[in-house]
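Recap for those who missed Tuesday's class. We walked through two folding examples back to back. For each one, the amino acid string is listed first and its predicted structure tokens come directly after. Nothing is annotated here on purpose, so try labeling regions yourself before you check the end of the notes.
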Amino acid sequence: MKSIWIVDDDQSIRFVLEKALLREDLPTRSFTNPREVLTALAELSGAGDDDGPQILVSDIRMPGGSGLELLEKVKQKLPGLPVIIMTAFSDLDSAVSAFQGGAFEYLPKPFDLPKAVELIRCAVEESQREEVAEERMAAAPEMLGQAPAMQDVFRAIGRLSQSNVTVMITGESGSGKELVAKALHKHSSRANGPFIAINTAAIPKDLLESELFGHERGAFTGAQTMRRGRFEQAEGGTLFLDEIGDMPFDLQTRLLRVLSDGHFYRVGGHNAIKANPRVIAATHQDLEQRVKEGVFREDLYHRLNVIRLRLPALRERREDVFALTRHFLQQSAKQLGVEPKRISDAALQQLSKFSFPGNVRQLENICHWLTVMAPAQVIETKDLPPEVLGAAPEAAKTAMPQVAAAVDQPFEAAFVPLKAVPVNDLPSGSHAADANGWEADLEVETQALLATGCTEVWDVLSRRFESKLIQTALLNTRGRRIEAAQKLGIGRNTITRKIQELNLE
């Protein structure tokens, strides 16, 4: 197993971590400054991979250089290496810079040794998991899917690879119909020809005919030159007609004629043009129903529906969410030019339970959002967007400070930081505005505790009051402590101490 590299000029820190990690059967290698680390990394080029680090744990301030500078240089050499930055509470601003530089996590000093070992072990497990994921990603095809329904799609693509037959792809919006069309083209005998796609629902009716068939110069106002249409552009290749169910009825007639005899006329033209693209159509609509409604030609439907390929919705292939999520996180990071973020198993489990009404496209957007918005390099459950957490109603409640005043809720849920919201500013009809409801609840709770003979009423109620304030603020800020402290009007050291005292970890 690769070793844990520890970088700190303090010998006692190195010694304590070495002994604790060795007890956990985690090999270590220690350095006193960043220069030694960079020298060791330079020597790795001729050595085996097993000599490299599994995790790098570095102090942030050392006589021989900055931990942040070391982080930047290490990431250039080993972009996938998890780096844990050790820092004092007074260095939290530097910790933010560490996260921006791609740090896995920060470890505040003085640290609790068991928690430090737990964090390092978590980083090791994540590193091993990512190594396996990267190996799989390197060999991943243009489409991912282990679910039986997707395997059926792959088999169909294989069978159709040597055929020029027209294919109709059906499936919900965002399920990846264009990817299937591209795969059909890539694995066909026309792979060297062009792949031309057009969304018939996205182009105004007046322009769609020209887009499909082209136009001659002077055919209409603005047609200053001759233009080849998509049918001509796709000659010898594949023409993908997306959302075919939304094509205007009069254009359906022209399309049917082209599919029947392979000839068409440009808009304003008089000479027939021969075209021979393979046509693949796609729709999220029920074409049989649209035929019954008289808005889609039955003869065109039968012409297109030679082979039908149904693409399953993402909720029908939940086992693929894991691989797709990791793929999209890698893809988003590459697009944005940042370090790819990792995602915890708990967050993946929560994500896989989501219904994904927008299918694979929605998952891709969520991964893009997480790449930008998740505060740390490892995405936890709390970092997922509200629609995934099922917390949309809760998010609406916590959008304003006054929302904690609630009718018919337990005593603990009724407290609000009233300093920020004068009673007169509360919405009319709210529990607090009508009769100081939370104060009345406090009085009832106090009387109940006094009646039991409790001699610690102040401490009991104060702890519950503070717990609810902090929990509500953390929910509002999605777990970001510094922001929660600012909203509550307390210091960041205070909120950290209170979280520990109240066992809110």
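Example two. Treat it independently of the first, because the proteins are unrelated.
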Amino acid sequence: MTVAVVPASGVAADSARAVAPSGSANDAPVVSIPATHSPVDVRSLALGILAALASVFALSWAQAFLVPLLIGIVLAYTLNPVVAWLEAIKIPRVLGTVIVMASVIGAVVLGTYALRGQAQTIIEQLPVAASKFAAGLARMRISQTGNLQKIQSAATEVEKATAQAAGGSVAPREPATHVIVDQSKFKLSNFLWESSRGAVGAIGQAVTVVFLVFFLLLGGDTFKRKLVRLTGPSLSKKKITVQILDSINASIQKYMLLMVTTNVLVALLSWFAFHWIGLENAGAWAVAAGLLHIIPYLGPAVTALATGMAAFMQFESFAMALLVSGASLAIATVIGVFVTTWMTGRIASMNATAVFVSLLFWGWLWGIWGMLLSIPIIVIIKVVSQHVEQLQPMAELLGD
């Protein structure tokens, strides 16, 4: 019996059919040889991994420079429509930029000044709250220790009764040995020194961001025109660059509008809940809840812990503390899961898994600032990937 071997490629198959005898072609079964695959380029893969690790290291090393820069760019994108509107009604761009920046800084200062009394009261009550909270935990520990001692006594009596019934004697128990581990003590002076250094650094970065936003708003579309000019004489490349910049602008503005809306909603609902429960300084706690909600996951947790301690200090009841903390967490969860997730999907058309993975990565890399900037960064990456052919797989991976 004759077996005809047919290669996988089309040209080789035609040659094989031409060489094979015409009479035996119908009688012989056909066996296809699978095409050979090219081996994986290990050198390219290794170079890609090394390049990715080097990029991550560079991003971590340049955090002090990149974080204020990105914050300034995001804020400039957010405030630019207001400046453009003022310029459209015949107000010079320099004057419009000064008006917008002065209005934002003035609103922050006036809001802080209006809540200074409640904030000062909260700060003055912190030592008393800490002592009461520690006393409450000590009472709970004593109560649990008493219950454990009762259970242990009951178990000892049962053991004695079992040993007597078996006719044996009960061996006396040796006292337990307590091991004391010497731990480093917390020093308030070191904590205050580190906190003051952190506050000075934060103020310096805030001033840097303010000046950066001012100059970006003052420049207007200057950088946009320069980027378009740098793409070369090709009209298609210029068109793609303009589309990318416009899409980034629109996406960041929509996201910032989303963030402002959700934070205001969290503050209003928190004020209503705290006022209904009877928590003192409800307005200050509501503003703190709205501001901390900017930080995903971590901000609501800090708000719940702080408001729970304030409620325990006021009511001296763990039940009331749990009620206030639970209300704060419930509001943040409802707004974050239903409102923020839905609106983010509508704005950026991204799946929730990609957003969460981006949050984990940038939070691990840059901490709280990375968590704040994670969504704008992934939005920019998705917009660029949609308009660049080589990055289409990335856009498909991030899309919903």
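Answers for example two:
The CA atoms of residues 156 and 162 lie 10 Å apart.
Residues 116-166 form the longest helix (51 residues).
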